[in-house]
Design goal:
three-stranded antiparallel sheet; 6 helices; alpha+beta; 32% helix; single chain; 7 strands; two-stranded antiparallel sheet
């Protein structure tokens, strides 16, 4: 299986400016998964990334090859594979300790919204409020960052039978 950049077109580029251009891969091309495709939950399978799993590991686990890691990143709109992808437990602990002088300090206050859904897996039923709001509960820096990690860990996977068709579409779009 070809790698991600193998699908990109080649171009002549004179990086030195000496009139002697070289053939390079046009890495400035970008393709974004259609929002409608990402929102079609009937097509995409939900998966929770385990501590320490990289996109390559998830690809191998679900598709039998590491070659589709880039499709996992693309469909989940992960632009930074280090901080856009869930950290391992140890990386997370190190990150929080480095980011905050006091991880246990209050990050913000919140309440459960009074209308609409009042329970959710991703805490979207909670709204940020002032500390003086009746019934407001505090959320620590640590808890806030943990929630962000949990959101990142909930990803969508493309069913294996659609991979060839999606790669073909990707190749057509990237070469335009």
């Amino acid at each position: 299986m070809a790698g991600y950049f193998s699908y990109f077109p080649k171009m002549l580029y004179d990086a030195v400016g000496n009139g002697n251009p070289k053939v390079v891969t046009d890495i400035m091309r970008r393709i974004k998964a259609k929002e409608t495709a990402k929102q079609d939950y009937s097509m995409l399978a939900e998966y929770t990334v385990l501590s320490g799993e990289t996109p390559e590991i998830v690809s191998y686990k679900h598709y039998g090859t590491v070659d589709y890691y880039w499709l996992i990143l693309l469909i989940n709109n992960v632009k930074d594979r280090y901080y856009g992808w869930p950290l391992s437990d140890q990386q997370f602990e190190d990150y929080v300790k480095e980011k905050y002088n006091n991880p246990g300090a209050i990050h913000h206050y919140e309440i459960t919204q009074t209308s609409g859904p009042n329970n959710s897996v991703d805490d979207t039923h909670l709204i940020e409020v002032n500390s003086s709001t009746a019934g407001a509960t505090s959320v620590s820096n640590y808890e806030y960052e943990r929630r962000l990690q949990e959101q990142k860990a909930r990803i969508k996977l493309i069913p294996a039978q659609f991979i060839p068709e999606i790669i073909e579409e990707f190749k057509n779009l990237i070469r335009r």
